[in-house]
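User: Fold this, then the next.

Assistant: Folding the first:
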Amino acid sequence: ALELSYQFGDPAITPLLLKNVADTKKTPAERERAMQLLARAKDAKLAEQLPTLLNDKELRTATIRALAMYD
């Protein structure tokens, strides 16, 4: 449901996705999916978080992929 809302431009979803990326209680898959959605849209707030997320072992690979989307 989050993915569809985001794809249809629901502005209320972005803060929720950013929260999911940072929430270590979420599964790595949930966090990665939120990151992918935001990275595809080149979300500026995600870009600010990415350097810090490189320290997260569970998300390191996904973070590197997300960083590549911004170039």
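Now the next one, as you asked:
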Amino acid sequence: HKLTAFMALNQMNVEQDLARGQGEYVASLGTLLGVPNDQQSAFHAKAQGAFETLMTSDHEARLQHLRTLAH
């Protein structure tokens, strides 16, 4: 539920960070998804690469896609 709340409260900031592939919101997102610190950069790059797909998905599909990218 933390992930859902985080995305709902910070959607615009998360979207901006995902577009850039870096930033505190995408780092927090990675942490909430359980991405180890040494894999955060790879997660950021994968999330940035999937930005357009993520932004055109509905909320639940977006969360599932992010979970997939994290693992």
